[in-house]
Inverse folding.
């Protein structure tokens, strides 16, 4: 399916002043990077997360009456409230096409036959069957379980390929020989995917059907057709297995956006409106005094440039300058986003328009062919601290001479260290800054290269080799399998284009002479063949080759490179941001905790889930090296009261002040890890409950919940828990006892207070 890219839609007609981010267009948000993660932090305190929830006031009697009248027609409908008005709305899919949609569908010549809604499959009880895995390395003859990659004609490299100057090592490296079919492959869901033409028509229908629905219930949602047109700008539209989703940007007036105003409207397979993620704002619902005078935009940029002390402001450029309304603080503000040339700094500053006060600073960078052959690491039993080399043949790539996947470009940066295979001398050095010239531009005098081979045999590169191309081949292998493991859920949620050649891709650069790894969605870099230019870059650190293996890196044979889970953490950022439009602001005063979702919630639980699928490490392996960061708050497993992460111990304010979104996000991550395995913990007693029947269902659940959290008025950890339960209640066949157990697990982490009681019965 074609995914309508929100980055490429101009808002010139809607904004009084904003700045485009180069060729990438308007930037709606940014994605956080997982760099050097800290260990356990002792600086904890009482949570402040409940304070802002006081604005979620119940409605007046008249509106309550209308809500109850609606529920007599649809008993499955659920509502939340903000400032005395309806905030979010959700209900179950229906087996009929609503009257308000029929006229629109006929006018656009869209299908009007009734379809059966698809629901998430029934879970498995862990007391009957423990969480299964593929345990890849324990089955050395069995092929790896992955969904299909498109066969295609080779993409021809433009540059020169070399087949000499191979690296030689005395290490004895075994080559895999997987000839048996996999016993349990990952599978795509069966559902009817729309064509590009049909998706384009559906996009036209979405806003018209929403308008007809709201017109039918005008008094309930308190908005007219004219107000809706002024308030909502359609940015994106997707069609997935469970719902269609229209994603809007909200405006307070023609010249003012709503800060963090992303809004998701969900339609079921029969075009019933089954979800509105947050309040559709009008000045009448949230009146503000007019701003008589305020600071100009250029002054706001200067204030924002100086607000991040650890980033040099002389080369920073503004990506976004947007007059906005902050609903939570009830202020008019400037939303300013900036980035530095080197890409290591990318931040958002919220500036009070009346006074010039800095209200928040968000650091947006936290530190088809099957014949390629690579040398990579494997980890016996899943021990991330004990890598060993193995040659893996029959690797799919999209390019005839280099490692390039459907979801990412893989390149190496050896320019400053010398490399036989890339002919560095062909690009002349420019003074002492030659090694810097590829960064901060897409048209520089230097560029990042991919290793090229005529015979596509990359197996000769080894960890301690001069060119360090091993980092490229190792990252390619592990990036490929993580992406293929995640692919069925991306498909189910409707965010994949119909052709793999159209997939949005991230540029992964190994060996950048950096000491940390990170992801930046707006980073400019010059590359060979212009591949991957224009943003979405993961930079994998070159580690100290004499250092020991750590939670971040594996070391063996004189080489230290990011371990697979660290790479998967970074790829999680890319998929959350680029495919699901989940930003990474941490604004405790604005009730936005999406950075915690990126880092400690999905940023630990998802890499851990992949590792279990690959190595069968289990829920709580005795050796903590077998599970990503499970030796610390960042990724530890809940087995008793001593290692329980609770919201009051890891507040949003502490996460911001300590720069530790990982531990604070792990409050949610621990709950997700229990969901993945079907475990409950009471004191020191571990008992069984249900878990999603497939990894695809688990990934669908957590990424969908993150999407809805990002489209909520209050984007905190409470809301993530609420959205998980909303999906299970409205879109699954789970039993009441299964849902009740999950609500109880969230309660263990003090996340239950804001879950709609409807979802737990």
């Amino acid at each position: 399916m074609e995914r309508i890219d929100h980055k490429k839609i101009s808002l010139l007609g809607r904004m009084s002043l904003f700045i485009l981010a180069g060729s990438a267009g308007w930037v709606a948000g940014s994605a956080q990077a997982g760099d050097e993660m800290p260990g356990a932090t002792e600086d904890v305190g009482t949570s402040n997360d409940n304070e802002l929830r006081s604005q979620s006031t119940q409605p007046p009697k008249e509106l309550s009456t209308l809500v109850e009248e609606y529920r007599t027609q649809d008993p499955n409908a659920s509502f939340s409230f903000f400032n005395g008005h309806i905030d979010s709305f959700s209900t179950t899919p229906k087996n009929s096409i609503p009257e308000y949609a029929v006229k629109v569908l006929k006018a656009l010549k869209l299908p009007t036959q009734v379809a059966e809604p698809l629901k998430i499959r029934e879970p498995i009880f862990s007391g009957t069957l423990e969480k299964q895995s593929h345990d890849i390395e324990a089955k050395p003859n069995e092929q790896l379980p992955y969904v299909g990659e498109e066969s295609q004609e080779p993409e021809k490299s433009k540059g020169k390929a070399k087949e000499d100057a191979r690296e030689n090592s005395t290490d004895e490296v075994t080559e895999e020989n997987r000839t048996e079919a996999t016993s349990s492959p990952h599978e795509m869901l069966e559902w009817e995917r729309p064509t590009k033409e049909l998706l384009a028509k559906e996009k036209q229908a979405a806003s018209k059907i929403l308008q007809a629905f709201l017109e039918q219930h005008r008094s309930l949602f308190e908005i007219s057709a004219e107000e809706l047109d002024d308030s909502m700008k359609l940015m994106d539209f997707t069609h997935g297995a469970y719902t269609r989703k229209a994603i809007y940007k909200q405006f307070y007036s023609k010249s003012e956006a709503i800060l963090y105003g992303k809004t998701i409207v969900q339609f079921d397979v029969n075009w019933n409106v089954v979800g509105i993620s947050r309040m559709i704002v009008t000045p009448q619902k949230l009146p503000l005094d007019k701003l008589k005078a305020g600071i100009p935009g250029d002054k706001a940029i200067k204030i924002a440039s100086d607000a991040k002390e650890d980033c040099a402001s002389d080369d920073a450029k503004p990506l976004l300058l947007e007059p906005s309304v902050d609903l939570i603080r009830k202020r008019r503000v400037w939303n300013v986003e900036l980035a530095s040339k080197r890409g290591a700094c990318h931040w958002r500053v919220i500036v009070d328009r009346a006074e010039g006060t800095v209200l928040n600073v968000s650091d947006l960078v936290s530190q088809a062919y099957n014949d390629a052959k690579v040398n990579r690491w494997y980890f016996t039993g899943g021990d991330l601290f004990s890598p060993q080399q193995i040659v893996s043949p029959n690797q799919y790539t999209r390019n005839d001479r280099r490692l390039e996947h459907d979801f990412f470009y893989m390149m190496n940066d050896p320019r400053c260290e010398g490399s036989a295979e890339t002919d560095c001398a062909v690009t002349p050095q420019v003074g002492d800054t030659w090694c810097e010239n590829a960064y901060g531009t897409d048209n520089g005098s230097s560029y990042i290269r991919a290793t090229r081979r005529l015979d596509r045999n990359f197996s000769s590169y080894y960890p301690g080799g001069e060119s360090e191309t091993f980092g490229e081949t190792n990252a390619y292998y592990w990036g490929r399998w993580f992406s293929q493991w995640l692919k069925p859920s991306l498909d189910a949620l409707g965010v994949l284009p119909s052709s793999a050649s159209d997939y949005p891709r991230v540029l992964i650069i190994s060996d950048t002479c950096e000491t940390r790894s990170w992801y930046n969605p707006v980073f400019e870099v010059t590359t060979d063949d212009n591949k991957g230019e224009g943003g979405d870059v993961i930079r994998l650190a070159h580690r100290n080759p004499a250092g020991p293996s750590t939670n971040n890196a594996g070391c063996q044979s004189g080489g230290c490179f990011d371990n697979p889970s660290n790479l998967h953490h970074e790829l999680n950022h890319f998929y959350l941001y680029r495919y699901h439009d989940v930003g990474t602001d941490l604004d405790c005063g604005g009730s936005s905790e999406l950075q915690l979702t990126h880092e400690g919630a999905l940023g630990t639980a998802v890499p851990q889930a992949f590792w279990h699928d690959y190595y069968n490490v289990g829920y709580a392996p005795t050796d903590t090296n077998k599970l990503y960061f499970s030796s610390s708050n960042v990724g530890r497993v809940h087995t008793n009261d001593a290692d329980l992460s609770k919201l009051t111990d890891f507040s949003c304010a502490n996460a911001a002040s300590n720069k530790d979104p990982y531990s604070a996000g792990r409050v949610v991550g621990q709950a997700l890890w229990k969901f993945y395995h079907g475990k409950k913990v009471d004191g020191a007693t571990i008992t069984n409950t249900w878990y999603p029947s497939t990894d695809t269902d688990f990934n669908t659940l957590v990424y969908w919940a993150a999407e809805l959290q990002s489209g909520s008025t209050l984007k905190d950890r409470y809301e993530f828990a609420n959205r998980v339960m909303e999906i299970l209640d409205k879109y699954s066949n789970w039993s009441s006892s299964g849902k009740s157990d999950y609500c109880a697990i969230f309660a263990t982490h003090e996340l239950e207070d804001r879950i709609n009681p409807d979802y737990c019965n």
Q: What stands out?
A: The two ends are 36 Å apart (CA to CA). Confidence is low (pLDDT under 50) at residues 1-35, 39-45, 418-427. Residues 297-390 form a domain with the Nuclear Transport Factor 2; Chain: A, fold (CATH 3.10.450). The longest helix spans residues 470-492.
